[in-house]
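Hello,

Our lab assistant flagged a job as stuck in the queue for most of the afternoon. It eventually completed. Since we weren't sure the result was trustworthy after the delay, we are filing this so someone can double-check. Below is the sequence as submitted and the structure that was eventually returned. Let us know if re-running is recommended.
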Amino acid sequence: MKRRNTPAKTAVLNILEHAKSAMSQDSIESMAKGEMDRVTIYRVLNRFCEDGITHRVLADDGKYYFALCRSCEGENHNHDHFHFRCLGCSKVECLTQRVTVVMPDGYRQTAISSWVTGYCRNC
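-- returned structure --
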C-alpha cells in the first residue's frame, strides 16, 4: 500500500538518516524540537517498521530503538543480528555479523534479537 508522504514522515526519516546509531523514540522526539508530538512520532516509526524502512528492537534498558534498514533489500531483508549498547555514551548500534543458532530438533528459528552491553571503542 502506497503511503502518503507527510512532513512528520519526512522529518523522522531525515533524523534517522543522519543518526550515527539506533535511536529511541525519546531521542527522535528531542531532535524534532517540537515539530511533532510523541504520538505522531510513534505512528511514523511503527509504519516505517511495517514497511521495512526501519527495524525496532527492545533493549535491556526497556526502551525500543529504531534503525534504518540500510543493507536490507528484497530477500536479504533480515534482522538476525546482535545489538550493542554502550554503558558509557549510551550509543546503540547494530552489529553487522550475522548470527546463526543451532536449534534443537523440532524447533524452527524465525528471528534473533539479542543485546550485548559494554563499552564502545570511544569509551
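-- support follow-up --
The delay was a queue issue, not a problem with the job. The result is valid. The domain at 7-118 is CATH 1.10.10.10 (Arc Repressor Mutant, subunit A). DSSP finds three helices and six strands in the chain.
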